[in-house]
Amino acid sequence: MNGRPRAVAAVLTLLLLAACTAPGGGESKRRWSPRPGTAWQWQLDGPIDHGVDVPVYDIDGFENDAATVRRLHREGRRVICYINVGAWEDFRPDAGRFPRSVLGKPNGWAGERWLDIRRLDVLRPLMTARMELCRERGFDAVEPDLLDGYVNDTGFALTDAHQLAYNRMIARLAHERGLSVGLKNDLGQVPELVDEFDFAVNEECAQYGDCASLTPFVEAGKAVLHVEYALALERFCGQAGRRGFSSMRKKLDLGAWRRPC
Length: 261
What we know:
Largest sheet: 9 strands, mixed
Shape: globular
Radius of gyration: 19 Å
Order of helices and strands: HEEHEEEEHEHEHEHEHEE
Number of strands: 12
Strand content: 15-25%
Helix content: 25-40%
Number of helices: 7
Distance between the termini: 58 Å
Strand order of the largest sheet: 1-2-3-7-8-9-10-11-12
């Protein structure tokens, strides 16, 4: 029997597998998840600096279009979509869709107010639309910010049970769209949520002495993407490295500047 049909079929199979696993490879791709120690860049302000030699970029989902994501994919990067799921932002294009009844106290950032996460009926379609934005623009994963309203003065009587229900909803919405999802802070609920989130994003666990709370992620083979703002590198890089974290120092504006461990 002529071997050409088999050879052609083998090539087509390899091309299909490559499309399923490469960055931006399509709907059928296996959900990507960063491994412990994966280097990353986190930039939420200013034009994206493509010159950082790391395999993962975490960028704002609203402010960066599909062309930006495609370029990062062509450069061999995976791309995480930053969205705020715990607070209303008056500067977002969907701000008018949030009823006043779910808007709580200001959270300390200009134009932002805490959301009443008990109202899953109201927030589910709004957050679904934000997840769809990330999916449509070709992102690989989502960083949903402010998943810890229950430990803040939001203006609502939020409990840990409300937060668990909300965070699990957010994880499901991401997974249903083929996106991996990171647990942002919320260290008190890591044991309950480590199996439902694909990685963690943390700010300042070294400064506040609670990095040990994140070790279940590393033990599960999932990255902890970690930043400090105030501490010098020598104050946290040693322990971060021993824990298997992906750590760097950033400025609060989260521009392009970074100092990795």
